[in-house]
Amino acid sequence: MRSPVTLHGRLCRLELMRPDHLDGLLFAATADRSTYDYTYVPKDYDAVVRYVALATSDHAAGVALPFTTIMIDPVTGEERIVGTSRLRELEYWRAGVWPPRHGHLNPDGRPDACEIGSTWLHPSAQRTGINTEAKLMMLTYAFEAWDVHRVSLKTDVRNTRSRAAISALGAQFEGIRRAHFPAADGGVRDSALFSIVRAEWPAAKANLEARLQRYLDRAAMAALEPALEPVRVDPHLVQPLHLESTAVLETAAGAPVEAGPVVQAPAIPAA
């Protein structure tokens, strides 16, 4: 648990959150906050410092595996920090203490259940396949390296976009926990609860892999299309083909779409 864990993809890389990620996280958190209504995202330098310090402390205590999400530009190879996610609320059922408590870990250090949360991405990284790949890598690590029984997810009940995204992962809706904890925008929020259990993981994994491949296929096809601007020729400058008509030349332009890479299977560190 306490050793560094890095999950490698083609669209992004998930690195264990470190203090030297602070500047990148600060930029991602503050440059454009237009989509952060229902999610807690640190809003200034001091808040990011506290955010990283708490994540580091949780990792040391064995209750979370916090990641910094690093986007990889498919054309230039340039990398930049675009957000975070983490495996958290780690439950150790075999630690000899029930209910689970901080400081009591399983003999092998691997949890029996966990939650994916604290996920946020700069708007420029949303709807790009990064979230799908990141969730695939984290779920694969949880189910195949840790061999957990359950991965939970939750979101503000008002966040319809997040609820749809969680359902698309293959997670099952469990219900609503009322007055769950403070809301990111003030007040007290109700939470929509979801989960994937071990028996459901093969189907959920196949679904995620197929979704990611469809995104990559579309991006690859778009990369083959020339980015042309419409070319129009003044008909008065064109020699007539017949006395009765004048030839007018025009080409149709395809819409340029940002290219994407081809995904590789996530590397799963040894437990």
Describe, in plain words, how this protein is organized in 3D.
With 271 residues, the protein is of the alpha+beta class. It is built from 5 helices and 10 strands; from the N terminus they run ββααβββαβαββαββ. The protein has helices at 22-30, 45-60, 130-145, 160-168, 201-224; strands at 6-8, 12-16, 64-72, 79-91, 113-121, 150-156, 172-182, 188-197, 231-232, 250-251. It has an 8-stranded mixed β-sheet with strand order 1-2-3-4-5-6-8-7, sandwiched between helices. A hairpin with a 3-residue loop joins strand 1 (6-8) and strand 2 (12-16). The longest helix is centred in the last third of the chain and has 24 residues, at 201-224. The protein is globular and about 60 Å long. The termini are close together. Pfam families: Acetyltransf_3. This is GNAT family protein. InterPro entries: Acyl_CoA_acyltransferase, GNAT_dom. Residues 14-172 form the N-acetyltransferase domain.
